[in-house]
Structure formats: structure tokens, C-alpha cells
TrEMBL record:
The lineage of its organism: Eukaryota, Fungi, Dikarya, Basidiomycota, Agaricomycotina. Residues 104-331 form the Glutaminase A N-terminal domain. One of its GO terms (biological process) is carbohydrate metabolic process. Residues 1-21 form the signal peptide. This is DUF1793-domain-containing protein. It comes from Mycena pura. Keywords: Signal.
């Protein structure tokens, strides 16, 4: 994949595959939070690394930072217990050495007495295997070596608690332990699940699994089990629970814990001892009144079979992750090390934002010919599959596997091609609140150019990069309707605004925004290419002629004093022309040289950059990470490109105590503050 394609993905380190290398590589990237287990909008666990905090005395958190996900891990060395995950009251605290992130993994290097450990949190990214990609499970595994060269008695332990399935400590939960051919797993769920929730799922089942040989698996009060780890010479776990039902907090200080432990005997090395953690929802989404389930369900008879396969696949999954990391970081590194850092931070979140689903047919069997994918507007409006979010994730999906774009677009196209939808422009989303996706047939004319442009650009990106023209053939007349709307309305968007304006920090004070207009014009040219794919030469020529005429007029209107302005005729306005990215990605070559030259002068004008990069526009001091990186792809020179990337990187590294939650997608370029964190599926949170 050429760097010019990869650069448009928001998304530095090749993971230490040997223990020695792990101990020698210095940490160079310090985000305020790092992903631990990130596989879906509701299985999204992070660890805070803000200034002044000790990762070895910090509980993992849900992505928004408002809910603790109790997850503890211990190593016992010669009878002395050290915890390497969480903030349990018992045992010694390991010494944190460094934290390194790659696109698929977070590696925490620690010292526990005489043992040096690499604790690796692996969230598989499997874009070409939809069964694996849709299975919401992650691994954590421990490698280690003796620091003193001696052998030691070693035991390992990890647990999760009922807080993984609800945000309320009063929720009544139920649990059980089961065994497969190759693994033992605990499961816990609410006794009264509900699909009505905002962020933390209240209808999920959490799993904690481990391979069979030489392990103990027990459910009990967290304090009781951890006391058994800390006390005595080895680890012998005994449950203190009489039943399989209780509240999340069995007392003010104790919660049910679901634990696995392993005795390694006397050794000087630890070789990838792994646990698996997952959070499953069933169904995932209800689209147009029909329940839809994670795609993996069509490939396994039961979730238990999927767990067994996931546990036994660990070594191969780790190898695939190493290979993907190497490829991603090599490509990203051709741009810059800072860009590679951003790719490492963004990759898991991008793919976790896509939920690939399948339906059942009339006989209750899985209908694998009906595959659809959905995104959640995480933490904000709860909208399902916002077009601007899919547009923002497009470069990542094009790079990883553009075939995923098809199932994301299918439900949007299907609904708008039905009798339920009559607007001449594309809808902004599938409605909501998540997980309900009823479709959105409301009056959204103010976003007509934004959404119609997004859809046409996405449809062409999918067809061009996959060679699959099925969406075009199926929905050609619908696509033409949107293109005709854009041909009429794009040049003078006086009554329209971009989706950015949904955020109060990015409210636009100008009309006739040039960046919005050019998106619509680029989409008209995209429709010309779509018509060519259909073999409709006359229509292709018509759309091409229209697009060229529009871009000529746009160039005249947008330029003022040799610079591109954010609003026609306003010489004081400026902004990031991030929609130029689509012309470059699709290789439409619609924008003339004069526009590139104007952009070069515009870039020179903006060289005095605030601490955290360029503002989105002169209307406010706020920006968006993704649009900043989109703009970097069309920067007229490497200096401006790197300034855009480096500004985002500085914000990604902004780990002061004022920084909230996961990396912010919308933030103030002067202060770095962005308000409430939101884990957007375009690779960044807000």
C-alpha cells in the first residue's frame, strides 16, 4: 500500500518478540490512557497513564473513565505475591518499567521482586476473517525472566469481577463455570438484562477463560480469593460462594470474582501464559425490527465452541498479530515515527467500532448471505452508523480490508431504497438509540450535502478497492438520485452545514463553506466513475462534465487574495480542507493544479501552529484529530504535513491530570482540553 494511501488513516513500536529486546527499548510515547481489551463499543477497556499515576496501582476503566472494570493479576515468587494489574488491597505492588503500544497490543513491562515481566494485552485485529474479527474476546499473557539468573517458585493468577456486565453495584448477577475440550471458562451476566443502556452494556455476558492443563478455576469473593493468593507458600483457591446468584457488590468492600490460577513450579522463565476475556451481547443490534447477531455465531455451533477455538488459537493469533503489527508500523513509519504512534493508538479502536452481524432465516438458521455491519456513535448521540463516522474510518478500512465497507453501507442503502424513505438526499444514520437501528427518514436537509457526499464517496471507494460492484448494481438509481441532488445544491451550500457542527465546540459561524461544497462536487465526480462501472457511458460523461464545471466555479469563489477561504467571499476565514482527501484517495484528479497551489499558500499562512495543531476553522479554537490527519494527506509540502501529524501526536501524548479518558477526537488546539472523552470508531475518542 503506497504511503499516500496509508497516510490518510488515523489510527512506534515493533513489539518486543524476545525478552531481551523488551528490556532495552525505551518508551517514547506517553498517551493518557492505553487500550487493554478493545474489541467492540461495549467491550472497551483502558488503563490510565496520566502524569502522577502509577499503572501498577490503577484499576482498568471503561473507555469513558467513569466505570471501573476490576481486573487483577498477580505473580507469586517464592511465596511473595506481587500484583501486575489493578489496584487490589492485598500483596505487593510491582514496579512499572514501561508501557509500549503497537496496533494490536499493549505491553506493560514490570518488575516483581526477582522477576522481570512483559504483560501483553492483545486485542486481535482480524480484518480478513470476519468470524474472528466479530468474536469480542481478547488475550492477556505473561512472559518473564529471572532478573538474578536464579530459579524461583512461580504461580500466576488473574480475575475479573461482575462490574464487567453492569455499571450498578446493586445489579443482581448470576454466574457459572463450564469446561470445553480445551479450556475452562467462567461466565457472568445480569439476572435481568436490558438492551436499554447508554455506554456500559446491561445485556452482556462476560467470560474469563484459560486453557485446561495445570490451572485452578474458582469463583468467590475477590478479597477471599486474593487473600488465598497472598497467603501461604503456593496458591490453593477455595470458593466461599454457596450459590450462583448475588449482587455485584456482595458487601461494601467485596465483589464476586472469577479467577484462574496456574502453578509453574520452579523456573527462571515464563513463556506466554495466557488468559482470555470477552464481553458478548446477543443480539448485537436490532435493525428494522430484526435481531442481528455477531457474525461468528454463523461459524460456530455455540459460543462455547468459539471460546474453545479462541483459547486454542492463541499462539497462531499472536503470530498473526506480530505480522500485522510489523506491516502496519513499517508502512506508517515511512511517513514518520509520530504517525506510527498514532496508528498504534488508533487501530484497535477503529476495528472495535465495526460490529459485523448476520441474521437468521425463517427456519432459524444463520443467513450468511445477509451480512451487515454497524457502528455506534459512542458516548454522544447513540446514533447507529453515522455516515461521517464511516467516512472518517474509510482510509483505515481501505487499508485493512475494504470489503468491510460493503456491509457497513448495505443497511443504509437498503433502508433508503425502501418505501419508508423519500428524501432526495442521503440520511445521516440509521437512527437510534443504539442498539436499535430503525432507520432515519426524518428531515435532515441541513446535512444533505454532507451525507450524500459521504455515501457516494464510500460506495466508489468500496467498489474500486475490492472490485465488487454489487452495491452499485443494486442501488444505482438511488445513487443517481443523490448525485443529482449534489449537482444542484453543492456549489452554493447556503442552508447547509457539515456534520462537525453537531458538536457545540465546532459550531460554524459561516455560510457557504468551501470545504462542504467541495465534498459534494467530488462526490459528483465519484458518481461519474460509478456510472462507468455500470457501463452507463452517457451518464458518466454528464456527471463528469457537471463536476468539472462545478469545480471551476468553486475555485473562483473559494479563492481570495491567493488563498483558499473557509467561506466564499470572506477573506478573514480559513480552515482545514480535509475533504480534498477523497479526491486523492479515489484518484479522481478533479482538483486542478491551481487549487493545489492555493493550498500551498494557505499552508504557509498557517505555519504559526498552536501547541496541539491547527484549528478546524477560524470559527473556533477546536479541531478534530481525524480531519487534521485527512488534511495532512493533501498538504502541499512535507513541512505542513508533519505539522498536522505532530499536532495530533502532541495531543495524543498529553497526559496531564486534566486529560480525561481515552485520546480525544475533538479538542482545543491551545489547551489540549476536549471535554468528555468519547471512543469514536474512526480511531479516536472525543
Amino acid at each position: 500500500m503506497p504511503p499516500r494511501h496509508f497516510l490518510i488513516w488515523v489510527g512506534i513500536f515493533h513489539l518486543w518478540s524476545t525478552w531481551l529486546a523488551a528490556g532495552l527499548n525505551p518508551q517514547t510515547f506517553f498517551p493518557p490512557a492505553v487500550p487493554l481489551a478493545v474489541r467492540s463499543p461495549t467491550f472497551n477497556c483502558w488503563l490510565g497513564l496520566r502524569n502522577g499515576s502509577n499503572p501498577m496501582s490503577t484499576w482498568p476503566q471503561f473507555w469513558n473513565g467513569n466505570h471501573t472494570l476490576m481486573w487483577s493479576g498477580y505473580i507469586k515468587v517464592d511465596g511473595v505475591a506481587w500484583h501486575w494489574l489493578g489496584d487490589p488491597a492485598l500483596g505487593n505492588t510491582s514496579t512499572w518499567l514501561s508501557t509500549t503500544i503497537t496496533p494490536t497490543r499493549t505491553v506493560v513491562a514490570v518488575q516483581a521482586g526477582p522477576m522481570l515481566l512483559n504483560v501483553t494485552f492483545l486485542s486481535p485485529v482480524e480484518p480478513s476473517d470476519w468470524a474472528r474479527q466479530s468474536f469480542p474476546f481478547s488475550y492477556v499473557y505473561v512472559d518473564g525472566a529471572s532478573a538474578d539468573g536464579k530459579t524461583h517458585s512461580i504461580q500466576l493468577y488473574a480475575d475479573i469481577t461482575g462490574q464487567w456486565v453492569t455499571k450498578s453495584l446493586d445489579t443482581i448477577i448470576q454466574w457459572q463455570t463450564n469446561q470445553t475440550a480445551n479450556a475452562v471458562y467462567h461466565l457472568v451476566t445480569s439476572s435481568s438484562p436490558t438492551s436499554v443502556f447508554q455506554d456500559m452494556a446491561e445485556d452482556s455476558i462476560a467470560f474469563h477463560a484459560m486453557a485446561l492443563p495445570n490451572r485452578q478455576s474458582v469463583i468467590g469473593n475477590d478479597f477471599t480469593l486474593r487473600s488465598q493468593v497472598v497467603n501461604g507458600s503456593g496458591i490453593t483457591l477455595v470458593s466461599d460462594f454457596p450459590g450462583q446468584l448475588g449482587s455485584v457488590a456482595s458487601s461494601p468492600t467485596q465483589v464476586p470474582a472469577f479467577a484462574h490460577a496456574m502453578d509453574l513450579g520452579t523456573t527462571d522463565t515464563i513463556s506466554s501464559i495466557a488468559w482470555a476475556v470477552g464481553v458478548v451481547r446477543d443480539p448485537v443490534v436490532t435493525y428494522a425490527g430484526v435481531s442481528r447477531y455477531s457474525y461468528y455465531r454463523s461459524q460456530y455451533a455455540t459460543t462455547e465452541d468459539a471460546i474453545d477455538a479462541f483459547v486454542t488459537d492463541f499462539s497462531s493469533a499472536r503470530d498473526r498479530a506480530l505480522q500485522l503489527d510489523q506491516k502496519l508500523l513499517q508502512d506508517a513509519g515511512r511517513v514518520s515515527n509520530n504517525y506510527a504512534d498514532l496508528v498504534s493508538l488508533a487501530t484497535r479502536q477503529t476495528m472495535a467500532g465495526v460490529e459485523i452481524t448476520v441474521s437468521k432465516n425463517d427456519t432459524g438458521e444463520w443467513n450468511t448471505s445477509d451480512v451487515m455491519a454497524f457502528m455506534k456513535d459512542v458516548g454522544s448521540s447513540q446514533r447507529v452508523s453515522p455516515t461521517e463516522m464511516i467516512y472518517a474510518a474509510m482510509p483505515a478500512l481501505v487499508y485493512l480490508n475494504a470489503s468491510i465497507i460493503g456491509p457497513l453501507l448495505e443497511p443504509l442503502l437498503q433502508f433508503q431504497n425502501s418505501s419508508q424513505y423519500g428524501n432526495p438526499y442521503a440520511a445521516p444514520d440509521l437512527g437510534g438509540p443504539y442498539p436499535a437501528a430503525p432507520g432515519n427518514a426524518g428531515n435532515n436537509s441541513v446535512y444533505g450535502i454532507e451525507n450524500s457526499g459521504n455515501m457516494l464517496i464510500l460506495v466508489l471507494a468500496h467498489a474500486r478497492t475490492t472490485g465488487d460492484g454489487s452495491l452499485i448494481a443494486k442501488y444505482y438509481n438511488l445513487l443517481k438520485r443523490w448525485a443529482d441532488y449534489l449537482a444542484t445544491n453543492s456549489l452554493i451550500p447556503s442552508q447547509q452545514i457539515p456534520a462537525d457542527a453537531r458538536d457545540t465546540h465546532l459550531t460554524q459561524n459561516h455560510t457557504n463553506m468551501t470545504n462542504l461544497a467541495i465534498k459534494g462536487i467530488i462526490a459528483v465526480q465519484a458518481m461519474s466513475e460509478i456510472s462507468r462501472i455500470m457501463g452507463d457511458a452517457p451518464q458518466a460523461q454528464q456527471y463528469e462534465s457537471t463536476a468539472k464545471a462545478l469545480v471551476k466555479s468553486w475555485t473562483t469563489l473559494a479563492a481570495s487574495s491567493g488563498k483558499i477561504r473557509w467561506s466564499y467571499g470572506d477573506s478573514s476565514s480559513s480552515g482545514l480542507m480535509y475533504n480534498f482527501m477523497a479526491d486523492k484517495l479515489l484518484q479522481l484528479n478533479l482538483l486542478p493544479f491551481t487549487v493545489s497551489d492555493l493550498l500551498n499558500q494557505h499552508s504557509v499562512e498557517m505555519l504559526l501552529v498552536p501547541t496541539f495543531g491547527f484549528p478546524l476553522s477560524s470559527d473556533s479554537a477546536y479541531t478534530r484529530s481525524d480531519w487534521s490527519l485527512f488534511s495532512a494527506t493533501v498538504a502541499a509540502n512535507s513541512t505542513t504535513r508533519d505539522l498536522l501529524i505532530d499536532g495530533v501526536h502532541k495531543r495524543a501524548s498529553f497526559n496531564s491530570l486534566a486529560s480525561l479518558g481515552a485520546f480525544s477526537n475533538v479538542y482545543n488546539v491551545r489547551t489540549g482540553l476536549g471535554g468528555t472523552p468519547l471512543a469514536y470508531p474512526n480511531g479516536f475518542s472525543r
